[in-house]
Each structure stands twice: as structure tokens, then as C-alpha cells.
Give the backbone structure.
Amino acid sequence: MSDVRPGHGSDPLAFLARARGPVADPEVHFRLGPADRPMVGPGDAVEPGQPIVERCREVEAIELPARGELALLPPGSVIDPALLPSGGLIQRHQNRPGDRARLLSVSPDGIARVVLGRSPEVITCPVPGVVDGLTAGRLSIGARGTGLPGRVGWGDPVIGRLVIGVPAPDAELRAPAIDIAAAGSILVAGARVDIEALTRARAIGVAGVIAGGMIGRELGLLAESDRRQRAALHAASPFAVVALDGYGRRIIPGPAWERLVAAEGAMVALFPDQSLVLLAPDAAEPASLTPAAGAAVITGGEAAGRIVRLVGLAGPVRVAGAGYLPGGFIEEETPEGEVRRRIVPLADLERLA
């Protein structure tokens, strides 16, 4: 393949979609349940550790006759649980300290639907910023820092000191390698993390895990474990997982890996609902943020996440199960330091510049 023709005068990168890059000062979100109480409002400045939401661990939806003042209240009104009429599904002796009730709606047949919240706990803000918005189901904060967008997330927002747990972005972190010294940290686990490693990490107090990919079955096991803890009313520390590149075994994308390595030891927050990793404003930057000429990242196949150089267009390429797709010549460096040239479908590439 020594007669590579770089696109006959065309820029090969023009045929590629741009890879998702870091986001400066992104907006982050916190879920609000019907019984939750926000403790900040739009325009308020927030700092790490500041209480922002009082969340109820137990939530029960009930129905009762809309009588007296209850029939006149607008939806969303907060009700003193002690003032709810006795009988039906609520008895006065069932009231507990800290209980709160909110009216959801009153139907035309005179039935009031009320949500009762119990066992309140305070959610603190993991990042500095300003409250941008507050709706019935979401609290939005304009955070300060650099956001690395991911593909998959699970858990609750967390913050911790960043610890690199693997030597390379394509390595895998096994359960025996997770040390108790990682308690309270955000652990970078490489291309994939299995359920055994996640279980050990959570048991020793790791706040969150960053990986290249996740298996859907293991996310289901995590969710099942969380449901059992909530059913048993066991207070568990917040825990989060963010996969930067999708499902399965996925190498952590090169630009994201460089930023994570440079920021080791700094504070990092995970927002799994948005699949977002947020680096603190004072986190170190990589030595060089300018991609090389023709730099692209592979997004599909076993080499997904690796940085290569697109040097020309190759015409149609036969792909198993997909017929023929437009292809391109790429150059990549082997572990032995040699430069290898091959053809890949353009659909499996994204440009970095």
C-alpha cells in the first residue's frame, strides 16, 4: 500500500463526523422526586458539600377523599401529614418524625392523590457553580470545570479524588487489585469493569468508577442490589458508574484518557444521569491538547478508542454484514513502535480536529 493517494486533493477528514470533545462549564442535573424538597433556588451560588436537596428514601402514593381544605388546595401543595384525615390507607398513629406529604391532584370524582415521603436524607452538591433552573422534576446547576461526555451511566452524583487504577486505557481492573486505600475516590478502571470489581469497589467505599465500557447485564445486577438495599432500608453511600465509550469492552478514548491521567489526584465528579465526568477547574491539563494532523479516533471494532491518522480515501470496503462502505487508509503505531497502515470503514472513524 505504498501508493496511498490522500483523497485526490480532498481532505479525508471532511468525510468524518467530529468526535465528542470536552465541554467547558457544563450544566449538570439532579433528579427531584415528588416528595423531595429543594434547598436552593435559581441564581443561588453553591459550593461542594452544600446541602441542595432533601430527598425521601421511602415514597408512597396514596388516595383518600378530598374533603375540607384538601379539596381547595392547588396541585403541588405541601400538606402536614398530621392533618390528613384518619382512615383509609393513612392512620394517625403511622405518622413519623420527618414525614412530608404533597398533593399531586384531585380528580373529578373527589379523590385526592397524595404522595407521602419518609426517611429524609440530605443530598449535598458535589461541584461549585450557580443554580440555573428549578422545575418539578429537576434541579439544574451551571457547574465550573471541564466535562468529559460518556455513553452509559448508573447511580447518583458523586465526587472524589481521581485514582488511575490501570496502566493503559485498554487494560481491565480486576477485583483483587482494588485496594482499601481507594475508599472515597473515583477509580479509573480501564476498558471494562465486571460485577465482582464493582461489588468490591462499593463495599470498600469507592465513590465511583470510570470505565471505557460496561456490560448491560452487570448494570442490571447493580440495580437489583440497590433495590434490595432500599427495600431493607439499609443506608448506602452514593455510588456511580460512567462508561465513556458504550457497552461491552471499550477502550477509554485517547483524548479522555490523557485528560484523566493529567488530572490524577484532583477532585472529579460523576453525573451518571448525563453520563458525564466533571474535572475540577484546578485539574491539570495534558501537556498537549492539539491533535496531530489527520488525527481520528476509531469508534467501532476491537480497536475502538485508539487514536490513528487518516491519510487518504480508499473507496468502497467490504464489511461483514453491511455490504460495502466507504473506506479510508489509516496509520497507527504498533506496541513495537512500528507504523502500520490499513483500511477501515469511514463509519468507524471520528475526527479529533
Q: What stands out?
A: Residues 7-20+291-351 form one domain. Confidence is low (pLDDT under 50) at residues 1-9, 87-93.
